[in-house]
TrEMBL record:
This is Tyrosine recombinase XerC. Residues 1-20 are annotated as: Disordered. Signal peptide: none annotated. Forms a cyclic heterotetrameric complex composed of two molecules of XerC and two molecules of XerD. It comes from Pseudonocardia thermophila. GO terms for biological process: cell division; chromosome segregation; DNA transposition. Residues 127-314 form the Tyr recombinase domain. GO terms for molecular function: DNA binding; tyrosine-based site-specific recombinase activity. Pfam families: Phage_int_SAM_1, Phage_integrase. The gene is xerC. Belongs to the 'phage' integrase family. XerC subfamily. The lineage of its organism: Bacteria, Bacillati, Actinomycetota, Actinomycetes, Pseudonocardiales. Keywords: Cell cycle, Cell division, Chromosome partition, Cytoplasm, DNA integration, DNA recombination, DNA-binding.
């Protein structure tokens, strides 16, 4: 039977009880300030901000105050992820997010010390993704060129998507973000806004130039609507091309050619970098083209054969 003198939990306990999935108010305020720091001060993309916020919500769950975040809590959090079967790459990403957050919290006076400096994490597996060979990439682009011969606006746009992705190695989000003003037709160059709002210039070749001209003459004018604005690549309803549609374009074009491994826009980005290096391009140039802040990232994105490394070594090393 219920005790008539106690018909429910104490009101003070109800008021301070933290609902499952919610953060304590001071902790939530700190997380909000950090995400605004990422977005407005560091210029991180919305995708990056969402990823940080998701990882950190998991880390901060159950903490009554931010000052309760210490090294022991960080280690328990990573250990729980390992027990749950998270991959080494995911654990490494989580640890990086935690270290970035604790460094910011220490710098802004929210923590007296930075516990993240002593947090170790597993090294992620650095496996190379599938990449198209030069002949395979040529087959995919030739097939797309054939498909655009009837000057269908969507087919012309899809051909341009493929040609620019392979010619420049830009990210699909960067490609879809291009405006007409970003195209320098005389120099065959594009002004690209990449991660961290960093601008760079990339160049493209004659096949991409032909695809661009055909699209601007017979493709884009047929797709333009009042909502098109200055966007270069347009969807079927006239708005700016969505990156998801661009990914579908690449997958559809690749799978249409028998014997070609299914890759997306990222695969064409890898292929562009790899084929330029195999053709003798300097790694630093490829780094600039891809918009990487670190050379190690460019090395991961490229497939350089042992044979190619041997040739470079024999040409450059005095005791080769």
């Amino acid at each position: 039977m219920l005790d008539p003198g106690r018909v429910g939990p104490d009101r003070r306990e109800v008021a301070t009880e933290q609902a499952p999935g919610e953060l304590a108010e001071p902790v939530a305020a700190a997380l909000k300030a950090f995400t605004e720091h990422l977005r407005y001060e560091r210029g991180r993309s919305e995708h990056t901000v969402r990823a940080y916020r998701s990882d950190l919500r998991s880390l901060l769950q159950g903490l009554p105050e931010l000052t309760a975040l210490d090294l022991a809590h960080l280690r328990r959090w990573l250990a729980a992820g390992r027990t749950a079967g998270l991959s080494r790459t995911t654990l490494a990403r989580r640890a990086a997010a935690a270290r970035t957050f604790t460094a910011w919290a220490r710098r802004t006076g929210r923590l007296d010390t930075d516990p993240g400096t002593r947090l170790s994490s597993p090294r992620p597996h650095r496996k190379l993704p599938a990449v198209l060979g030069e002949e395979q990439a040529a087959e995919v682009l030739d097939a797309a060129t054939t498909g655009a011969e009837e000057s269908d606006p969507i087919a012309l746009r899809d051909l341009l998507v493929l040609e620019l992705l392979y010619a420049t190695g830009v990210r699909v989000s960067e490609l879809c973000g291009l405006d007409l003003d970003d195209v320098d037709g005389e120099r065959r160059a594009l002004r690209v806004v990449g991660k961290g709002s960093r601008e760079r210039t990339v160049v493209y070749g004659v096949p991409a130039e032909r695809a661009l001209r055909r699209y601007l003459v017979a493709g884009r004018p047929a797709l333009v609507t009042p909502r098109s604005g200055r966007a270069l690549l347009l969807g079927a309803r006239g708005g700016r091309l969505d990156p998801r549609i661009a990914r579908e374009v690449v997958h559809r074009a690749v799978t249409a050619v028998p014997g070609i491994p299914d890759v997306g826009p990222h695969g064409l980005r890898h292929a562009a970098a790899t084929h330029m290096l195999q053709g003798g391009a300097d790694l630093r140039y490829v780094q600039e083209l891809l918009g990487h802040a670190k050379l190690s990232t460019t090395q991961l994105y490229t497939h350089v054969t042992v044979e190619r490394l041997k040739v470079v070594h024999e040409q450059a090393h005095p005791r080769a």
